[in-house]
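Thread amino acids onto this structure.
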């Protein structure tokens, strides 16, 4: 009998904390509190964080020097004594560039403020570009977006199809013909700006969680050029051993065949649900009844793929993000019905299936979250 090789476990013991680590943590706490709760006085921050006023004043002073925090003026006087000065995150004095590479026929970019509000939009049309040709278009679009900024940039965030590792390398993106592409490094070298790259569905999940009211236990399914999903479990984004958690587009759904997929298999979820495939099928349908049946079948296949995930993780909601003309109606209804039929019925509240509140910009806003977390510790 051949012995089983057990992978070596990495040590989980943490290194000794340095004083600088504690200060960095406290700086991040100040920024997170201000970003989520809004402008506050130094005294209110002190009470909220459980730190001394001297410590908070010192932290705020450092953040002001970095241009991360600004003073807004006097608070309304509602207590005896001198009115306090309010401080807040520099929401409009710093900006973020986001790139959304997930759509079938266009690369999208935006300049955003620190609240994820889109200030300027840019895009580049796609035809049949793949591989290095797409990379060149992405770099050119990033240049244009950086030039459109009207305030200092905190960084660039990117949401791309495919599997992306923690270093911003696109390990594989079959629809773009990318393999082991160091996209983050390429953009950093090209723009001289910190760059964070994530799978587009992961970025959308962070955007929904931070700006769209997403819950602590949800799966967001992003339907565009391909099909991917992002997972929040206990309020934390799941990544997986190979940075591929939620990569459901190339899961074979059913045993009854299907269309050939770009990955080489047959009957992948992507061939049933991805926007280009579904759009072509709907265009060829002879009437409204046939189109409704196609959408219902796509929703059923998606529900079949999601049911084991929803059951295994006891998720509270499934969020669908993508073209509303495809998702709203028969498709979403079929997803909900299939999940209800294929999972054990839970106590209230029941599983919620809904559309994203901001499908057009959810990836872009999610890329802003990536930058906020990496640069300011804010999410």
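Threaded sequence (379 positions):
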């Amino acid at each position: 009998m051949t012995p089983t090789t057990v992978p070596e476990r990495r040590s989980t013991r943490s290194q000794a904390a340095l004083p600088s680590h504690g200060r960095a943590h406290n700086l991040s706490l100040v920024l997170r509190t201000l970003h989520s709760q809004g402008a506050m006085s130094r005294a209110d921050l002190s009470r909220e964080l459980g730190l001394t006023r001297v410590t908070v004043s010192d932290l705020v002073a450092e953040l002001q020097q970095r241009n991360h925090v600004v003073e807004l003026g006097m608070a309304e006087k509602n207590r005896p004594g001198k009115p306090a000065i309010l401080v807040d995150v520099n929401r409009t004095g710093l900006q973020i560039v986001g790139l959304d590479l997930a759509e079938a026929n266009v690369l999208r970019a935006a300049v955003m403020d620190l609240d994820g509000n889109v200030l300027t939009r840019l895009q580049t049309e796609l035809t049949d570009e793949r591989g290095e040709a797409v990379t060149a278009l992405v770099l050119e679009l990033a240049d244009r977006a950086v030039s459109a900024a009207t305030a200092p940039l905190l960084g660039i965030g990117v949401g791309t199809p495919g599997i992306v590792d923690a270093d911003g390398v696109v390990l594989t993106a079959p629809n773009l013909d990318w393999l082991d592409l160091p996209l983050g490094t390429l953009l950093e070298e090209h723009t001289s700006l910190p760059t964070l790259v994530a799978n587009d569905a992961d970025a959308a999940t962070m955007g929904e969680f931070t700006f769209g009211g997403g819950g602590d236990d949800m799966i967001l399914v992003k339907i565009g050029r391909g099909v991917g999903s992002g997972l929040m479990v206990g309020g934390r984004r799941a990544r997986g051993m190979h940075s591929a958690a939620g990569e459901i587009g190339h899961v074979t759904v059913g045993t009854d065949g299907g269309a050939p997929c770009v990955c080489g298999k047959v009957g992948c979820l992507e061939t049933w649900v991805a926007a280009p495939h579904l759009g072509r099928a709907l265009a060829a349908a002879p009437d409204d009844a046939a189109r409704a049946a196609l959408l219902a079948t796509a929703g059923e296949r998606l529900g079949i793929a999601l049911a084991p995930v929803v059951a295994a993780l006891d998720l509270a909601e499934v969020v669908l993000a993508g073209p509303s003309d495809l998702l709203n109606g028969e498709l979403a209804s079929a997803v909900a019905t299939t999940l209800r039929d294929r999972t054990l019925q839970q106590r209230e509240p029941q599983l919620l299936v809904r559309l994203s509140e901001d499908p057009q910009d959810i990836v872009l806003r999610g890329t802003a979250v990536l930058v906020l977390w990496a640069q300011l510790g804010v999410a």
